[in-house]
Specification:
The protein is about 25% helix and about 20% strand. It has about 160 residues and is α/β, with parallel strands linked by helices. The protein has a single domain, classed as Glutaredoxin (3-Layer(aba) Sandwich), CATH 3.40.30. The strands form 3 sheets. Strands 5-4-3-8-9 form a 5-stranded mixed β-sheet. A two-stranded antiparallel sheet has the order 1-2. β8 and β9 form a beta hairpin. The longest helix has 12 residues. It is globular and about 35 Å long. About 40% of the residues are buried.
């Protein structure tokens, strides 16, 4: 996947850029494999083991069943390596599988790579059953995050 760092983040109504990446499950994850089956919440987070990211991922795990009941697959993505993400997942007993964007291709495609820091902004993209983005939010500051209550409201309001 080739994209320039100047790519702007997709917005509601845009086709979600497809990707395949390694995950903590040991299997690669391909976004388009969920088409027609489940909606997907792509949740970019800057770095494992940082305070806001740890809180966010622990919250996703705590509310895991709420996302499952809405038939939504949560795909947290960071630029960390798979071994780092596995250690992070195990340390915090996370229920979600984490996706590695080690080469930064996904962050570039979604326009969220912070080139000067070489990690992604915190951002959320809800992808519907047809592969279209139905909700998108990019945080202005990496220390900010959406609450799961807000995300679940967006999921409830979005088309399937």
């Amino acid at each position: 996947m080739t994209s320039s760092a100047s790519t702007t983040a997709p917005v509601a109504g845009d086709r979600a850029p497809d990707f395949t990446a390694d995950s903590t499950s040991g299997q690669p994850v391909t976004l388009s494999s969920f088409a027609g089956k489940k909606r997907v919440l792509i949740a970019f987070f800057p770095l494992a083991f940082t305070s806001t990211c740890t809180t966010e991922l622990c919250d996703f795990s705590a509310d895991f069943d709420q996302f499952v009941s809405k038939d939504v697959e949560v795909l947290p993505i960071s630029v960390d390596s798979v071994p780092t993400l596995k250690e992070f997942k195990n340390k915090h007993q996370l229920r979600v599988e984490l996706v590695s964007d080690f080469k930064r291709d996904i962050s570039r495609a979604y326009g969220v790579l912070l080139a000067d820091k070489f990690f992604s902004a915190r951002a959320y993209f809800l992808v519907d059953l047809n592969g279209t983005i139905s909700w998108a939010h990019v945080e202005s500051n990496a220390g900010l995050k959406r609450t799961n209550a807000e995300i679940l409201e967006q999921i409830a309001a979005a088309p399937r």
